[in-house]
UniProtKB/TrEMBL annotation:
<dbReference type="InterPro" id="IPR028082">
    <property type="entry name" value="Peripla_BP_I"/>
</dbReference>
<dbReference type="Pfam" id="PF00532">
    <property type="entry name" value="Peripla_BP_1"/>
</dbReference>
<dbReference type="InterPro" id="IPR001761">
    <property type="entry name" value="Peripla_BP/Lac1_sug-bd_dom"/>
</dbReference>
<dbReference type="InterPro" id="IPR000843">
    <property type="entry name" value="HTH_LacI"/>
</dbReference>
<keyword id="KW-0804">Transcription</keyword>
<dbReference type="InterPro" id="IPR010982">
    <property type="entry name" value="Lambda_DNA-bd_dom_sf"/>
</dbReference>
<protein>
    <submittedName>
        <fullName>LacI family DNA-binding transcriptional regulator</fullName>
    </submittedName>
</protein>
<keyword id="KW-0614">Plasmid</keyword>
<feature type="domain" description="HTH lacI-type">
    <location>
        <begin position="11"/>
        <end position="65"/>
    </location>
</feature>
<dbReference type="Pfam" id="PF00356">
    <property type="entry name" value="LacI"/>
</dbReference>
<dbReference type="GO" id="GO:0003677">
    <property type="term" value="F:DNA binding"/>
</dbReference>
<keyword id="KW-0805">Transcription regulation</keyword>
<keyword id="KW-0238">DNA-binding</keyword>
<keyword id="KW-0678">Repressor</keyword>
Length: 334
């Protein structure tokens, strides 16, 4: 009776080896990506595992290998649809390369030591840190522990830490050129540069390009690059005379549009030209139809995982920086 209470015994790799008629080492190789094993043997092992209901215990394997197949993804600002899109692409790419993503949400106010501890206790094979997540302590301690790191859209230059950066300077250049070519004579950029490396670079490039074109641009500083900040700041736009606005991201631009379009029909054109950044799914919705700068999450994810895998193989490589292109997507708002 006691045995029945415990439930059926879980199949082990020894059971799989017996049923498949192979060695236990062959079972291990069959479930190890890129290991040397014949297709016939792999198929026999998979079939036996399916019959027995056997699944590899990756966490147990990591105790032997000193590293798990987990990759930590540190992210903040999860309310932003772009972050959701970014994490989805990263997760899919990691899974395609036989890694398993583990998400650690954080914020600028979070206790970074807690995040570091969680990552290192899981014996992760690597860490990906996205923009707006507090980076320095996480990166320096992980690097000291020999854990490979890749940063996305972050400015910190840390030895042995690789970076993927969207071409923010080109983004600011494209936005300024398009607004002025469309007739804007009192342009502005809205951003929270103090907490965002990307927002700072986009703003600087926008203002510099406007100056090159003989137009003085205003800078509208907000606390956070989010929907509420855009919505609240838009209350002052009508009185300012601004006729062209570049928002540091689409999420904030959507807040601006909702505020300036209050009392108007949704088919109306906003009273000023507006450009966002990221090309989140909502940007193409009829309610916004937002002209924006597309940042390719799929390309970023592929390059990020490529850098991570090469860093795992060669941890002493010189720190590398790779840029991803941006594209102007023209819609109704500008």
């Amino acid at each position: 009776m006691a045995d029945r209470d415990k439930g059926p015994r879980k199949a082990t790799s020894f059971d799989v080896a017996r049923v498949a008629g192979v060695s236990r080492a062959a079972v291990s190789r069959a479930f190890t990506p890129d290991a040397s094993v014949s297709p016939k043997t792999r198929e026999k092992v998979y079939q036996a595992a399916k019959e027995l209901g056997y699944r590899v215990n990756y966490l147990a394997r990591s105790l032997t290998n000193k590293r798990s197949d987990l990759v930590g993804v540190v992210a903040a600002g999860l309310d932003n649809p772009f972050r959701t899109l970014q994490i989805e692409h990263l997760a899919r790419m990691l899974l395609a390369r036989n890694f398993r993503p583990i998400l650690l949400p954080t914020s600028p106010e979070a206790d970074t030591s807690t995040v570091i501890g969680q990552l290192l206790h899981y014996a992760v094979s690597g860490v990906i840190v996205t923009s707006d997540a507090p980076p320095t302590e996480i990166c320096e301690q992980c690097a000291a522990e020999g854990v490979p790191i890749v940063l996305i859209n972050k400015g910190n230059d840390i030895p042995f830490v690789d970076r993927i950066i969207s071409d923010d300077r080109m983004a600011g250049h494209l936005a300024a050129t398009h607004l002025i070519d469309s007739g804007a004579r009192k342009p502005a950029v809205m951003a929270a540069p103090a907490i965002s490396y990307t927002a700072r670079r986009r703003s600087e490039a926008f203002i510099a390009r406007c100056k090159q074109l003989g137009v003085e641009a205003q800078f509208l500083q907000v606390r956070i690059n989010d929907y509420r900040s855009g919505y609240d700041a838009a209350a002052e736009l009508a009185a300012s005379g601004i006729d062209g606005l570049f928002c540091a991201n689409d999420y904030m631009a959507c807040g601006v549009i909702d505020r300036v379009m209050q009392g108007r029909g949704r088919d109306d054109t906003p009273p000023l030209s507006i450009i966002g950044h990221d090309d989140i799914p909502q940007a193409s919705w009829t309610a916004y139809d937002l002209t924006t700068i597309r940042q390719p999450c799929d390309v970023q994810a592929e390059k990020t995982v490529d850098l991570l895998m090469s860093r795992i193989v060669e941890p002493d490589l010189t720190a590398r920086v790779e840029f991803t292109p941006v594209t102007l997507i023209r819609r109704r708002t500008a």
